[in-house]
Amino acid sequence: MTPPEIFAIREGPPDGPGWRIRVIPNKYPAVDLPDLKTPHEIVIETPDHNADIPDYTAEHLRDLLLVFRDRLREMCSKKDVKYVQLFRNKGARAGASIFHPHTQILALPFVPRRIKSELEFIREEGLDFERDGGTRTVAECGNFIAFAPYFSRFPYEIWVAPRVKRPDFSKTGEGELLHLALLLKKSVTALKHILGEIPYNLILHTLKDRDFHWHFEILPRYEGLAGFEVATGVYMNSKSPERAASDLRAAIKEEFDERRDSQTSV
Ligand SMILES: [Zn+2]
Predict the structure, then answer these.
(1) Is residue 230 part of a domain?
(2) What pLDDT shows up at residue 222?
(3) How many domains does the chain have?
(4) Which end of the chain is more exposed for a tag (fewer CB within 10 A), N or C?
């Protein structure tokens, strides 16, 4: 049995058929926050059991981003909530325990150390596309850019961010989300073009701190973590981000530009 839905984009009354995207509480929430009835939510992305981001239309993905934004807004507004993590596990190695396409949103009463150190890093260095001269750029659309960071932990790791620093994803304008959707669709499609049906994580880092710069990270997980990575937190990556970006650009050209030439829209 699916628990009663919190939100849905649908035809017809709640909890029946006709939905396109729906949000339900996780039956086994990982946290307990007195101020928040559902601190751990699941966004069921599509009724189609086998679909993934490359299969979604850009419009469907835009609607999904709109749901992400609005749920984050709502959860962040609660006083006990210090941080909200949105994450998507695709494939068993990336941690998926149910296989229907879904994203989880989890509110926390603290800011995790990883996020604090990212904030420090961004404060000092900024995101690296600002100074890479384009060699690590994967694609650009509207106000957003996809790039392979010079500190990539995984081969073909991609980050998607607003070009100009903005801390809080939940403030993104509705009119911009189609561009962001298109960029995410292109990025994941390119990844699959190169690597096939690999497991991957899609995560969002966003923070209400004016020094932060929100971003999605797309993390291919076809190589497991080895002892060295677990021991040190230092990752060995066999693929240079410049090479990865160049491969990904070529894949996007093949998947999108050439398809468009043959009259297929994206
Ligand atoms: Zn991050």
Answers:
(1) yes
(2) 76
(3) 1
(4) N
Q: Report CA(204)–ligand 1 centroid distance (Å).
A: 7
Sheet containing 158-162: give its strands across: 7-10, 19-25, 40-44, 102-108, 83-90, 200-205, 215-220, 158-162, 144-147, 137-141
Distance 248 CA to ligand 1 centre (A): 20
Per-residue model confidence as pLDDT tens digits over 144-199? 999 999 999 999 999 999 999 999 999 999 999 999 999 999 999 999 999 999 99
Does the predicted TM-score (pTM) go above 0.85?
yes
Ligand 1: distance of its center to the CA of 93 in Å?
A: 20
Rounded to the nearest whole angstrom, what is the distance from the C-alpha of residue 82 to the centroid of ligand 1?
16
Q: Is the pLDDT of residue 123 over 80?
A: yes
Q: Which domain holds residue 239?
A: 7-261
Report yes or no on 266 lying in a domain: no
Write the CB contacts of 119 (distance below 8 Å, at least 6 apart in sequence).
Answer: 207, 209, 211, 212
DSSP state for residue 229 in the 8-state scheme: H
Confirm whether 2 is domain-assigned.
no
Let me know if residue 198 belongs to a domain: yes
Residue among 231, 218, 204 at smallest CA distance from 154: 218
Measured in Å, residue 159 CA sits from the centre of ligand 1 at: 8
For residue range 26-85, list pLDDT tens digits in order.
988 888 888 888 999 999 999 998 899 999 999 999 999 999 999 999 999 998 999 999
CATH number for the domain harbouring residue 250: 3.30.428.10
For the chain, what percent of residues have pLDDT higher than 90? 72
